[in-house]
What we know:
By secondary structure, the protein is an all-beta fold. Helices cover 0% and strands 46% of the residues. The strands form two sheets. Strands 2-10-9-4-5-6 form a six-stranded mixed sheet, with no helix packed on it. The N and C termini lie far apart (40 Å). The relative contact order is 0.31. The mean pLDDT is 96.
Amino acid sequence: QVQLMESGGGLAQPGGSLKLSCAASGVTLRGHAVSWARQAPGKRLDWVAGIYNDGTAYYADSVKGRFTISRDNAKNTVYLQMNNLKPEDTALYYCARGGMGSEWDQDFNSRGQGTQVTVAS
Length: 121
């Protein structure tokens, strides 16, 4: 069973930064794409960013230029560096193995607890 644990969320001021981590246990992330998605209260799950094993990364337009996804296969961990945070970034953030392409959301069906990011002054 793939188990990914998100951490690193918290409260940040507008313009601030946070770095999220997605750590895998019982399974390797090596060789797999890994993605982040987020869900604000009462809203749908939105894809945020994804990274392939070769390091090629893609971003949603809403976070492009502000967020950076990276991976450390030796640590079996994927990161999401979030800079210049905005109140609209407030959401519960999830990671998943895969999560790329037109059916990205299916890989988030068995998502974990996520990590809460709140951006407020």
